[in-house]
Write a structure and sequence with these properties.
The complex is a heterodimer. Chain A contains four helices and four strands, in the order αααββαββ. By secondary structure, chain A is an alpha+beta fold. Chain A is globular and about 55 Å long. Chain B has one domain: Acid Proteases (Cathepsin D, subunit A, domain 1, Beta Barrel), CATH 2.40.70.10. In chain B, the strands form two sheets. In chain B, strands 2, 3, 4, 5, 6, 7 and 8 form a seven-stranded mixed β-sheet that branches. Chain B has a three-stranded antiparallel β-sheet with strand order 1-10-9, with no helix packed on it. Chain B is globular and about 45 Å long. Classes of the chains: A alpha+beta, B mainly beta.
Chain lengths: 128, 141
């Protein structure tokens, strides 16, 4: 059957397509596999530390952009740890959380976005 | 014709390769905690790479404590398609000078060590292929 889905997060779809390609699957095969896994293992699916931090960032993003443009924000352990004027200050706060965290989001709100986008790598390839 | 004189500050021998030696510069890399992850390593210079520093995924794991959100990861166009890179903050040291930079590692691939234009644009270097060395230089006069 043909399926049309609206309002899919383009970033997640891009990563899904990339993973499907990496595994040598066509998109419909990857989607079927994902659906099967989700239905089968629903009670056991856990978010990783990276997933949690990114989810929190996405949930807060609009507010952060509105209130703290130009500041550094630190998200770890699934919560906003703090808002900082400088990188050193943020790094100091991060130091206090050691060794309990393995992942944190440290980004300069509204500034790091300027470095986002499509880049080029002439002659680059995924061959080692 | 424009004449210009440069003084070499430090030179790094080109790395061995199957056919043509690879230009390289020495770098040290610190994570946001100030831990030295790479100590004076000869990193290949890749002027075709628009990003800053690419690392293997194993090395990149040392920088997860200051990663950018997923939506700010970068896509690189290559001859064989698009490669998505995770991005994190780091401090690079070149010839005793430290500065903040971004580092990246492919999302779906082991990656490799190289220095791209985002870092090279902060340096003056001469790639001397006849001597098989790359030198940091400063212009005189």
């Amino acid at each position: 059957m043909t399926l049309v889905i609206k309002r899919v997060d383009p970033e997640k779809l891009r990563m899904f397509k990339a993973e499907a390609a990496r595994r040598g699957l066509r998109l419909h095969q990857a989607l079927e596999e994902a659906i099967t896994l989700w239905l089968k293992y629903k009670p056991f699916v856990l978010e990783t530390e990276i997933d949690v931090n990114n989810r929190v960032y996405e949930e807060m993003r609009e507010e952060l952009l509105r209130k703290y443009r130009g500041k550094f924000i630190l998200i770890a352990s699934g919560r906003l740890i703090g808002v900082f004027d400088g990188l050193e200050e943020a790094a100091g706060s991060l130091e206090k959380l050691r060794p309990n965290i393995k992942h944190a989001i440290l980004t300069r709100i509204g500034v790091d976005e300027e470095y986002h986008g499509e880049y080029e790598w002439w002659g680059g390839s995924i061959e080692p | 014709m424009v004449g210009r004189i440069y003084r070499t500050i430090d030179c790094t021998e080109h790395l061995e390769s199957k056919r043509n030696p690879v230009p390289a510069i020495q770098i040290s890399l610190y994570n946001i905690h100030g831990e030295k992850i790479l100590n004076n390593v000869e990193a290949p210079v890749d002027a075709g790479y628009e990003g800053s520093i690419m690392l293997t995924s194993e090395l990149y794991n040392n920088f997860l404590i200051a990663e950018l959100p997923r939506r700010l990861w970068r896509d690189y166009r290559t001859l064989t398609g698009t490669v998505t890179m995770r991005v994190a903050r780091a401090v690079v040291e070149i010839n005793g000078v430290k500065f903040n930079t971004f580092i990246g590692s492919p999302l779906f691939w082991v990656g490799k060590l190289l220095v791209g234009r985002e870092v090279l644009s902060k340096l003056a270097i001469v790639i001397d292929c006849s001597r098989k060395e790359t030198c940091l230089v400063e212009a005189l006069g």
